[in-house]
Design a protein that fits this description.
By secondary structure, the chain is mainly α. The protein folds into two domains: 318 residues, Na+/H+ antiporter like fold (Up-down Bundle); 46 residues, no CATH class. Helices cover 74% and strands 2% of the residues. It has a two-stranded antiparallel ribbon. The two termini are 17 Å apart. Keywords: Auxin signaling pathway, Membrane, Transmembrane, Transmembrane helix, Transport. It is found in: Membrane. Pfam families: Mem_trans (PF03547). It is a multi-pass membrane protein.
């Protein structure tokens, strides 16, 4: 059973995050140190430097030969279930959309497993809980955050291609589009569409093919360290564990000096974002409640179904369900802010999710412990 000392350990792990959050909030709202354009620049610093090195650091020090692959398979199946439901919702419901499907996937599946999960599940299930949540963290960073990055880049690249044109200035627009496309190495023959301007002239205008979009997205991902930092880390982890190697201290120190700032600067950036909003709950109470339902009910329910399907039982099953109810991933907010997609919803989910998570997770723990048949 969780003791007061265990709860204290969780508080020790989470309270410093709110210190960074408050400092970020105050630097914009109270002390006027940073301007809005500087807030965006700091978020980009987090997105392209501290978070990739943070992910590289913890994946490089994992041991993939000791992973519980049935546990990871259950997590993967649960995410496939959620994707299928969201795809059906986006296609069949008048309220469904591609953009909201992306955000809903983040809310249902991406968790703050290292900062909150490690101390909490360690208190609940000892070393087993710690090992499993670290394994989940690595696969989340390698696979699911990369998938999120891909769909965000795909959405942004699709919107960057002009599908229509103001016909009074079509020549200028087409000329600009042509120059942008050739910097990306794409043949305009792949792009179709026509527009007639006020003088009766016709111009080819870009309606990108799937192949063109995928080429653009691939090039952007190759230039984004978030898409490959974890892959580099896990390749090193396999190599190091197989041959008992360690990173040279100068390399390890170079990574560590920036990676240590990852979580803190992410929370600082979130505080700055909050300070620019008109309301404390930036997305409004309805969307905040919707996000909490997805995080604490829909996600764990999908994991429970998938875990039972692959035959998990005992404490491994309990850890699988509880880790799915951990508060929202901070990285998901950083990506949402960078790509301009529902950052208000994700910031609310992170901030209030961490506040609500402790009593909710303890309730999950007590309920699952009482179900001895699992």
């Amino acid at each position: 059973m969780i003791s007061l000392d265990d709860i204290s350990k969780v508080m020790v792990a989470t309270v410093p995050l709110y210190v960074a959050l408050i400092l970020g909030y105050g630097s914009v709202k109270w002390w006027r140190i940073f301007k809005p354009d500087q807030v965006d620049a700091i978020n980009r610093l987090v997105c392209y430097f501290t978070l990739p090195l943070f992910n590289l650091d913890f994946t490089a020090h994992s041991n993939p030969f000791k992973w519980n692959y049935k546990f990871l398979a259950a997590d993967a199946i649960s995410k496939v279930i959620i994707v299928a439901v969201l795809a059906l919702w986006a296609r069949c419901s008048s309220k469904g959309s591609y953009c909201w499907s992306i955000t809903s996937f983040s809310l249902c599946t991406l968790t703050n497993s290292l900062v909150v999960g490690v101390p909490l599940l360690g208190a609940m299930y000892g070393q087993l809980g710690v090992d499993l949540v670290v394994q989940f963290s690595v696969t989340q960073a390698i696979i699911w955050l990369t998938v999120l990055l891909f769909v965000l880049e795909f959405r942004q690249s699709r919107s960057d291609f002009p599908s229509t044109v103001n016909c009074t200035s079509s020549v200028l627009v087409v000329s600009d589009a042509t120059s942008q496309v050739h910097s990306l190495g794409i043949d305009l023959k792949d792009l179709e569409g026509k527009c007639t301007n006020n003088d009766g002239l016709q111009n080819n205008i870009s309606r990108p093919s799937l192949c063109s979009l995928l080429k653009v997205v691939s090039m952007k991902l190759l230039a984004n360290p978030n898409s490959y930092s974890c892959i580099v880390g896990i390749i090193w982890a396999f190599f190091a564990c197989r041959f008992n190697f360690q990173l040279p201290s100068i390399v390890d120190g170079s990574i560590l000096i920036m990676s240590k700032a990852g979580t803190g600067t992410a929370m600082f950036s979130m505080g700055m974002f909050m300070a620019l909003q008109e309301k404390l709950i930036a997305c409004g109470p309805k969307l905040a409640i919707f996000g909490m339902v997805l995080k604490f009910i829909a996600g764990p329910a999908a994991v429970a179904i998938a875990s039972l399907a692959v035959g998990l039982h005992g404490d491994v099953l309990r850890v699988a369900i509880i880790q799915a109810a951990l508060p929202q991933s901070i990285t998901s907010f950083i990506y949402a802010k960078e790509y301009g997609l529902h950052a208000d919803v994700l910031s609310t989910a992170v901030i209030f999710g961490m506040m609500a998570s402790l009593p909710i997770l303890i309730a999950y723990y007590a309920t699952l412990q009482s179900l001895h048949s699992l």
